[in-house]
Specification:
The chain has 183 residues and is mostly helical. It folds into 2 domains: 1-96, Rna Polymerase Sigma Factor, Chain: A (Orthogonal Bundle), CATH 1.10.1740.10; 105-183, Arc Repressor Mutant, subunit A. The chain has helices at 11-19, 23-44, 48-65, 75-93, 102-106, 117-126, 129-140, 145-152, 156-181.
Length: 183
């Protein structure tokens, strides 16, 4: 197995050290995963500073809850789930999990270049919070509608509806980008 970090032979060694409260392990974990976890937060939260705050809070929560890790899967995967939950908690507490269809028509995108990954991420980021959250959880994080419903406190039908609407808005925006780039 490849060495994950110089001081720790495996990810589980790193997890054990974090559970023991080893500051070097926490620092190493933060340095290795903070960028990845910030990207997750930014997929859910539009405000970059708020996303950074949520990422830092997520790291603290990971360290506080590390003793709950059961070594059945990867520590990274377990940690990502906490990050997603922290981002959802932020959205919930700030009443940003809107589900209204009218919000989809308010967000607009510009088509200055051909569609690339950056454009697609921008389009996803411009979705209304409810649409964006369900889309991210389903299409990017791989959650089922049942899991999304539980995480967000909505019905499975609402989750499916939000995903469908998110896809429709994205398709509409993609078509607009393609039409604009053809001129």
């Amino acid at each position: 197995m490849a060495r994950i970090l110089p001081l720790f032979k495996t990810e589980h060694d790193l997890a054990r050290a974090i559970i023991r409260g080893d500051g070097n392990a926490q620092r190493a974990f933060y340095e290795k995963y903070s960028g990845k976890f910030l990207a997750i937060c930014c997929r859910y939260i539009k405000d970059r500073m708020a996303a950074e705050d949520v990422m830092v809070e997520s790291m603290m929560r990971i360290f506080e809850k590390s003793s709950q890790f059961d070594f059945q899967g990867s520590f990274e995967g377990w940690s990502k789930r906490l990050v997603v939950n922290q981002a959802l908690g932020y959205l919930r507490s700030n009443k940003m999990l809107e589900t209204g269809i009218e919000e989809a028509h308010q967000a607009s995108g510009s088509a200055e270049s051909l569609l690339e990954a950056e454009d697609l991420l921008r389009l996803i980021h411009e979705l209304p919070s409810g649409y964006r959250t369900v889309f991210n959880l389903y299409a990017i994080e791989g959650y089922s509608h049942a899991e999304i419903a539980e995480l967000m406190g909505i019905s499975e039908g609402t989750s499916k509806s939000q995903l469908s609407r998110a896809r429709a808005v994205l398709q509409e925006r993609l078509n607009e980008l393609q039409l604009t780039s053809n001129f």
